[in-house]
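Quiz preparation item.
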């Protein structure tokens, strides 16, 4: 049986937890039936097809649950139905998730739309807008050249410079916002002129335009002096502007906003946000849910199959079925946690099969990370949820959901109705502070 360094390296890299799968990737596993029948193609895609006006929808779920992979599937689904789709992850080039406001998002959308559509539409309305602002902005773009003297490609690049500085240079961030903010309405106007032109020249038979802005769910909650949050500023205060682009829109939104006291306001503005729950690996009563466990194993199996299709997952990749089961159950049905645990266990192995000891050490390391994520007063909250399987609509619980100490699950009951429940991440079960909190609760 091959145990080479190359094989281990290939297996290790096959479990990269930070790369969403492109549409059609053979490693993709359809988990709809163990996520409470959650299907992004029906929930978001059908609405966009049926509506005779532009739609603006929100999509949420725990970070690392698989939202980006599902959004890339949606992109392909829409493209097969004559939508031209602009998809981008906002935090990769444009915004800083630790400090994000609406103006940053608008500039990010402008930059990406210019990048993707400049070949089929005239950017002149947007460039004229930028020219009118240039006296105020050229120092913030760190460009000494006069705007009129730049070639068109260089003029277009100035939006990229502004968003790059928004992301990378904190001392310039607020200055850029102050200069742009009074002019966001006119920026949307010229951006829509650009979009109207683009929609008239869409290639290859496309007849609709959609924009998907991913990773806004990673925005960190920030409160101002009056207690208002940046989530409220973006998704409520600026909702009209957020919806104003002349195309179909999907924005990801933090779970703690979806579960806040402003949930009904979000519904009134955007309709019900769609939420991607965990893969259910345990039942509400704490028993192993075999269909969910099977799906989680399939996620591992499909990645292994790309590297070593001849090896048995349960005896040659892992040293026993029990070792594999333990790793899968400790993920809580959270895809990124599953990939992280598997990659860490492989990284602790000098040869195959991956041993129970390597898996145990990977679990211990991950458990310690979760222990550090919990503040002292939160252990009693986690103990309560582990017993009740419910959460209270409170900032303390929302913060535990944001850092994935609490996970959401769904299932269809015997009447076909969707039921929602919550539990602690399984990694927390073995932490002494949690055990003490459970004992006090009992």
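Solution:
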């Amino acid at each position: 049986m091959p145990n080479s360094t190359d094989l281990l390296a290939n297996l290790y890299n096959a479990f990269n937890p930070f790369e969403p799968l492109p549409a059609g990737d053979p490693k993709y596993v359809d988990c709809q039936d163990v996520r409470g029948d959650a299907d992004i193609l029906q929930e978001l895609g059908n609405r966009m097809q049926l509506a005779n006006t532009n739609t603006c929808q929100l999509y949420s779920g725990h970070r690392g649950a698989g939202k980006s992979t599902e959004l890339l599937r949606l992109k392909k689904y829409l493209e097969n139905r004559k939508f031209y789709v602009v998809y981008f992850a906002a935090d990769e080039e444009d915004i800083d998730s630790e400090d994000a406001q609406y103006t940053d998002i608008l500039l990010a959308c402008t930059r990406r739309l210019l990048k993707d559509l400049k070949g089929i539409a005239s950017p002149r309305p947007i460039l004229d807008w930028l020219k009118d602002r240039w006296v105020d902005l050229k120092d913030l773009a760190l460009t000494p050249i006069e705007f009129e003297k730049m070639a068109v490609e260089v003029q277009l690049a100035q939006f990229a410079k502004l968003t790059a500085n928004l992301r990378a240079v904190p001392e310039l961030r607020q200055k850029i916002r102050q200069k742009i903010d009074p002019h966001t309405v006119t920026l949307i106007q010229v951006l829509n002129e650009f979009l109207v032109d683009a929609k008239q020249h869409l290639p290859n038979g496309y007849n609709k335009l959609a924009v998907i802005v991913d990773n806004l769910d990673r925005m960190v909650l920030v409160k101002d002096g009056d207690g208002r949050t940046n989530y409220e500023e973006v998704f409520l205060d600026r909702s009209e502007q957020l919806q104003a682009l002349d195309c179909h829109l999907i924005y990801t939104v933090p779970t703690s906003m979806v579960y806040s006291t402003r949930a009904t306001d979000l519904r009134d503005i955007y309709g019900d946000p769609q939420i991607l729950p965990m893969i259910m690996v345990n039942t509400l009563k704490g028993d192993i849910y075999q269909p969910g466990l099977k799906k989680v194993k399939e996620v591992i199996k499909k990645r292994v199959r790309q590297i070593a299709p001849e090896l048995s997952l349960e005896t040659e990749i892992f040293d026993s079925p029990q070792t594999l089961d333990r790793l899968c159950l400790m993920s809580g049905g959270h895809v990124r946690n599953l990939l992280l645990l598997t990659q860490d266990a492989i990284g602790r192995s000098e040869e195959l099969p991956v041993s129970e000891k390597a898996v145990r050490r990977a679990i211990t390391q991950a458990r310690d990370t979760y222990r550090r994520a919990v503040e002292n007063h939160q252990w009693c909250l986690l103990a309560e949820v582990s017993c009740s399987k419910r959460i209270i609509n409170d900032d303390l619980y929302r913060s535990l959901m944001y850092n994935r100490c609490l996970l959401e699950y769904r299932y269809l009951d015997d009447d076909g109705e969707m039921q929602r429940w919550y539990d602690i991440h399984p990694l927390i079960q073995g932490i002494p502070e949690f055990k003490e909190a459970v004992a006090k609760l009992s």
